[in-house]
Write a structure and sequence with these properties.
Layout (H helix, E strand, L loop, with lengths): L2 H13 L1 E2 L2 E2 L6 H15 L16 E3 L6 E3 L3 H15 L2 E8 L3 E6 L2 E14 L2 E15 L4 E15 L2
Parallel strand pairs: 3-9
Antiparallel strand pairs: 1-2, 3-4, 5-7, 6-7, 7-8, 8-9
Length: about 160
């Protein structure tokens, strides 16, 4: 990006306008319900399958554990199996999450998009860690609730902490 482009981009961000949306727009509490349920599941996976979080069809998940993309009719069950393996293999424990301010919110009818700065802390094996990243979500409104249609997790930084 050229210096003149960075200046214009910074000015647009300073106005709080990105992609035609106002920075004051953000996901409402009902949109955060499936995300909080997802966090609850990921923090300490119960024996039962995850339910009430993902859309019934068309789900796409991009993750940092193999096979990295989960798509098609078995996306949710494949992701769940993959996550359980990741959780057990890395001996994850004491997981907690902190969210930053949602970014780049947009809504079109029964779909919404936003990026959610996210920090995971916990233990892997016996070492404490902090993983900073961004969780980008596409939600779909069903007859009675928002569900995750897709998400992508991107790690910005991982650090061991004392």
């Amino acid at each position: 990006m050229r210096a003149s482009q960075r200046g214009v981009f910074g000015f647009v961000l300073g106005l709080g306008i990105v992609g035609g949306t106002c920075a004051a727009e953000r996901p409402d509490n009902s949109m955060m319900v499936p995300i909080q349920a997802l966090v609850h599941f990921m923090s300490s996976p119960p024996a039962s399958p995850i339910s009430g979080v993902f859309a019934k069809k068309g789900v796409v998940i991009v993750e940092n554990f193999a096979p990295y993309i989960f798509i098609g009719p078995g996306a949710v069950s494949g992701w769940e199996t993959g996550f359980r393996g990741h959780f057990l293999n890395d001996k994850l424990s004491d997981l907690e999450v902190t969210f930053g301010e949602p970014q780049d919110f947009g809504r079109d009818g029964n779909r919404a998009y936003f990026a959610l700065p996210t920090a995971w802390t916990g233990r892997s094996q016996t070492k404490r860690f902090k993983e900073d990243g961004v969780w980008s979500f596409v939600l779909v409104r069903t007859s009675n609730a928002w569900r995750v249609l897709g998400y992508a997790w991107g790690v910005k930084e991982v650090a061991l902490v004392p």
